[in-house]
Design a protein that fits this description.
- The protein is an alpha+beta fold and 390 residues long.
- The protein folds into three domains: 12-131, Acyl-CoA dehydrogenase/oxidase, N-terminal domain (Butyryl-Coa Dehydrogenase, subunit A, domain 1, Orthogonal Bundle); 133-230, Butyryl-CoA Dehydrogenase, subunit A, domain 2, CATH 2.40.110.10; 239-384, Butyryl-CoA Dehydrogenase, subunit A, domain 3, CATH 1.20.140.
- Helix content is 51%, strand content 14%.
- The strands form three sheets. Strands 2-3-7-6 form a four-stranded antiparallel beta sheet, covered by helices on one side. Strands 1-4-5 form a three-stranded mixed beta sheet, covered by helices on one side.
- The N and C termini lie far apart (51 Å).
- It binds 3-thiaglutaryl-CoA and flavin-adenine dinucleotide (FAD).
- 3-thiaglutaryl-CoA is lined by residues 96, 99-100, 134, 136-137, 143, 145-146, 169, 237-239, 242-243, 245-246, 248, 319, 368-370, 374, 378, 389.
- Flavin-adenine dinucleotide is lined by residues 100, 134-137, 142-143, 167-169, 211, 216, 364, 367-371, 373-374, 377, 389.
Length: 390
């Protein structure tokens, strides 16, 4: 009988170093000890268990690929991926918090920020003493961020920020937000907006059926005054935010695996224990087909994620490869969650098992960081050289 553990059907663990395996053990232990006991209730209550942020900082999950001199862990990208898998095995909301902090806030501050900005923000973000948000999506521009309306107008040595961002993870609890806006020449610039600045508000979006243990909200800028110190000096153009997305999408390709594994393990155990017609439901061919297809999908996704990690560490991973992996692995995870929910029958809709929570979360994961269809079109463009989105 196949064990519950990871699963690891093709012995992908043999491709990992001892340090990778130890790191994964530490993150998995923390998720089991600190996150799992509170996450179901947080999701039911539609609240984010914010106390976990400091613990995650102490654990080293924020900016693992950022050099140690700025508070990161200086780890490779396989390590980053393994961290994301283990966090999302707990809940996509926990992985989301880490994705935003690491890839969407620390990454641009490190890559495009001034030395003063790096020193001011990165160590505090790494420790979880400061929470970050990333503002790209707007009410009228989601898949097409290049058409954004948020404006950065120059007045001598100062800048005025006007506009609104929507669907922003961590919005109302963030201490800083990396925000993308067009300057007087229509060029996209990145700015760092701090909580409490005059004209800046961040109302929370309520009533979500997905990612209920994550804070989502708006960022509204009504004449927020910024100085040169708030601008990221090292980047101009849409490539700036899209490069951050490449880092986050890479993490999601690994993260989705965690949710899928948790659903698969739960369904396998349930199928072996639940009896109908005098036999375990795992004995029926239709159940075995479901389990076999789930494990096949997980195994393919593990190999894709691992290979992408190697390419990323070698500096060879392309944005299009990352798109393919994000799309394929999240799609697999969502199908796995749906199938697991069916195996659990009525029990599958309750909070006694994590499956429905993962399933609902994954409906956001398949939409954010580029929708399922947008990633398909990115692959289509890579194959043909022809843009099909505009
Ligand atoms: P396009 O002309 O294709 O590209 C503009 C410039 O950007 C470069 N580029 C990239 N660079 C790095 N990484 C990538 N992934 C890149 N994709 C493109 C490109 O080479 C070009 O550079 P240059 O120097 O030649 O100017 O731009 P487009 O306007 O045609 O847009 C293409 C499209 C549709 C693929 C893109 O806009 C897109 O990806 N749309 C999806 C939007 C999206 O993913 N939004 C995510 C918002 S953040 C979020 O969801 C956070 S969830 C947080 C959580 O985990 O909780
Ligand atoms: P639209 O762009 O309006 O798309 C609607 C539908 O049209 C989709 O099915 C899409 O695939 C399809 N479509 C659009 N264009 C085309 C085309 N050319 N061809 C074919 N089909 C097309 N954004 C941030 O900036 N920061 C965050 O922290 C953040 N966090 C989020 C958290 C959550 C929980 C959610 C749900 C979203 C978050 N987002 C965030 C926003 C997310 O990135 C967007 O929702 C996503 O990019 C899609 O944009 P949209 O919702 O406006 O959909």
């Amino acid at each position: 009988m196949y064990p519950y553990a990871s699963p690891d059907y093709f012995l992908v663990d043999d491709l990992l170093t001892e340090e990778h395996v130890m790191l994964r053990r530490a993150i998995r232990d923390w998720v089991e000890r600190a996150a799992l006991p509170v996450i179901e209730d947080a999701a039911q209550q539609n609240t984010f268990p914010q106390h976990l942020i400091r613990e995650m900082g102490a654990l080293g999950v924020f900016g693992p690929f950022i050099p140690e001199e700025y508070g990161g862990a200086g780890m490779d990208h396989i390590s980053y991926g393994l961290i994301m898998t283990e966090l999302e095995r707990g809940d996509s909301a926990i992985r989301s918090a880490a994705s935003v902090q690491s890839s969407l806030v620390m990454f641009p501050v490190f890559e495009y920020g001034s030395e003063a900005q790096r020193r001011k923000y990165l160590p505090a973000l790494a420790r979880g003493e400061m929470i970050g948000a990333f503002g790209l999506t707007e009410p009228n521009h989601g898949s097409d961020p290049g058409s954004m309306e948020t404006r950065l107008t120059r007045h001598g040595g100062r800048y005025e920020l006007n506009g609104a961002k929507m669907w922003i993870t961590n919005a109302s609890i963030a201490d800083i937000a990396v925000v993308w806006a067009k300057d007087d020449e229509g060029v996209i610039r990145g700015v760092i907006v701090e909580k409490g600045m005059k004209g800046f508000t961040a109302p929370e979006t309520k009533g979500k059926w997905s990612l209920r243990a994550s804070v989502t909200g708006e960022l509204v800028f009504d004449g927020v005054i910024l100085t040169e110190d708030h601008l990221l000096p090292g980047i101009r153009g849409l490539r700036g935010p899209l490069s951050c997305l490449s880092s986050a999408r890479y993490g999601i390709a690994w993260g989705a695996l965690g949710a899928a594994m948790d659903c698969y393990n739960t369904a396998l155990r349930y199928a072996q224990e639940r009896h109908q017609f005098g036999r375990p439901i795992a004995s029926f061919q239709l159940t075995q087909k479901k389990l076999a297809e789930m494990l096949t999908g997980i195994t393919q996704a593990q190999l894709l994620a691992w290979r992408l990690g190697i390419l990323k560490d070698q500096g060879k991973a392309t944005p299009a490869q990352i798109s393919m992996a994000k799309r394929a692995n999240v799609d697999m995870a969502l199908r796995t969650a749906r199938t697991a929910r069916q195996i659990l029958g009525a029990m599958g809709i309750t909070g006694d098992f994590p499956v429905m929570r993962h399933l609902m979360n994954l409906e956001s994961v398949i939409t954010y960081e580029g929708t399922h269809d947008i990633h398909l079109l990115i692959t289509g463009h890579d194959i043909t050289g022809i843009h099909a989105f505009h």
